Amino acid sequence: MTKNRFLWDKPFEILTLLRTSKDRLFSYKVSRLTNTTADRTSTILKEFEKMKIINRKKEGRRIYLTLTKEGESIADFLTKIKKLTI
To answer: Which long-range contacts (CB under 8 A, 24 or more apart) does 76-85 make?
Structure first.
């Protein structure tokens, strides 16, 4: 993913979903909730992990996703920007 794609709809949607969800999320559930293919979701999540925005934690057969402190800050900031542009 190139830097200019960061603010595209799906990465933004995934970040805000991870920030606002009350459920524990894993990759497949994120794909379903954002109406994104599993491949695209996986690509976005890998980029987020490289950027240290998310953590993955394996429990049993599932790998749960959480935002890092930096990821939470970014998600909050992007949500504020989106509210200003609506």
So the answer is: 76/19, 78/7, 78/12, 78/15, 78/16, 79/16, 79/19, 82/12
